[in-house]
Write a structure and sequence with these properties.
- By secondary structure, the protein is of the alpha+beta class.
- 34% of the residues lie in helices and 26% in strands.
- It has a single domain, classed as Aminopeptidase (3-Layer(aba) Sandwich), CATH 3.40.630.
- Strands 1-2-3-4-5-6-8-7 form an eight-stranded mixed β-sheet, with helices on both faces.
- A hairpin with a 2-residue loop joins strand 7 (201-212) and strand 8.
- Helix 1 packs across helix 4 (159-173) and helix 2 crosses helix 3.
- 28% of the residues are buried.
């Protein structure tokens, strides 16, 4: 009886997750048009995953999966502390071993599930940042923690905002998420502007929530819901 009940619960959870995905797909098509008109997908026009996945941003900038070819670029961008200043969770020093581990983790994840973390690339394909959500615990998870960063040389051009806005339809449609949450340091004015321009709503302030090399700082919590909720 216990085994039968466990099987029933698993099947019920899978059915609920499938239903949520179908609702999300309908929402995506209604809000953004037919799949063949969306800025991502393979030759079939349907969303695809892994290294073949490409989401257009604008002006030739686009999102794709991280690859082994990005190893040195990751080290160059993340080893000097300029990005880590705003994202304390980034390992420092950021070594080739750290980059290798991250790339292998991404490749392993996409063998089982859709991509959740993308490289932001310039028109010639060079990685200039990243946008995505933290790893989802199970297929039925409805909320995702948004994260993003860009090459300091690319800042001030609206690239982070455009990358987030390109990723959001994918998160709500392909990943089937109903909510995106973003935490940012209160003094990170650029990040706050990105979220505000991307229709995220300030939901709270966590006092002295985050510890950095300079001490304890307040963290702001932003959220965005799928429009059909």
């Amino acid at each position: 009886m216990v085994c039968a009940w466990a099987r029933f619960r698993r099947r019920a959870a899978a059915a609920a997750a499938a239903f949520e995905k179908e609702l999300a797909a309908r929402f995506l098509e209604r809000e953004y048009g037919p799949f063949e008109d969306l800025p991502f997908g393979g030759d079939s026009g349907r969303p695809c995953y892994g290294a073949t996945m490409r989401i257009e941003v604008s002006d030739g900038y686009h999102l794709t999966s991280v690859t082994e070819g990005d190893r040195e670029r990751l080290v160059d961008l993340l080893s000097d502390g300029q990005v880590a200043r705003w994202i304390p969770a980034l390992p420092q020093p950021y070594t080739r071993q750290v980059a290798d581990s991250w790339i292998k983790r991404r490749a392993s994840y996409t063998q089982r599930r859709p991509e959740i973390s993308f490289a932001i690339r310039n028109p010639v394909g060079i990685m200039v940042g990243s946008v995505g959500v933290d790893e989802l615990r199970d297929p039925s998870q409805h909320d995702g923690e948004l994260g993003y960063w860009v090459d300091p040389a690319e800042r001030g051009r609206g690239l982070a905002t455009r990358a987030v806005e390109a990723f959001v339809p994918y998160a709500f449609g392909v990943l089937g998420l109903a909510r995106l949450t973003a935490h940012t340091l209160a003094f990170n004015v650029r990040s706050v502007r990105v979220l505000e321009k991307s229709s995220f709503i300030l939901e709270g302030r966590l006092r002295r929530r985050t510890r950095t090399a300079t001490g304890y700082h307040d963290t702001l919590v932003f959220g965005r819901l799928r429009p059909d909720l």
